[in-house]
Amino acid sequence: MARQTAYARRGGLTFLEAAVALQTVTLFFQAATAGALLTSSHGATLHDVGSRVMYGASLLYVLAAVLAWRPGGGSPRPVVYATGFLVLASAQVALGIAHMPSLHVPLGVLMFGLSTLALGQMVCARLRGGSGTRLP
């Protein structure tokens, strides 16, 4: 029963689901501001601020995964996924600072795809009525 209350409450988002949703939205914002870099002087500022928010969202994802795992009695799998994503986010920031767009852009696309996949899996599990424990 503890597993069910920690992961999938009827009627509202769990902290883990909200963290993944926020991460996905920030990654989409980063893609949009990357395009704005090419056409506007404000694009660089927005992309820079967005990178900090995206990194914070990745940290929040790790925190949410740990809280769902330890006190909530859930699976440790989301912690592994969240930690892996934080590693990717760290690499993404380092590549952006180093001005290596040939690696920075494809990694950003990969990160957005993985985050969207994780969010989609959570939504599907919620619709199926599952506990969501298999999800990142």
Write a compact overview of the structure shown.
By secondary structure, this protein is an all-alpha fold.
Low-confidence runs of at least 5 consecutive residues: 1-8
Radius of gyration: 16 Å
Largest sheet: none
The fraction of residues assigned to DSSP E strands is: under 5%
Helix coverage percent: over 70%
What gross morphology would you assign? elongated
Task: Quote the average pLDDT.
Answer: 86
Helix and strand element order: HHHHH
Rounded to the nearest angstrom, the distance between the terminal CA atoms is 20 Å
DSSP helical segment count: 5
| Helix/strand structural class | mainly alpha
The number of E-state strands comes to 0
How would you describe the overall organization of this protein?
The protein has 136 residues and is an all-alpha fold. The protein is 79% helix and 0% strand. It has five helices and no strands. It is elongated, with a radius of gyration of 16 Å. The two termini are 20 Å apart.
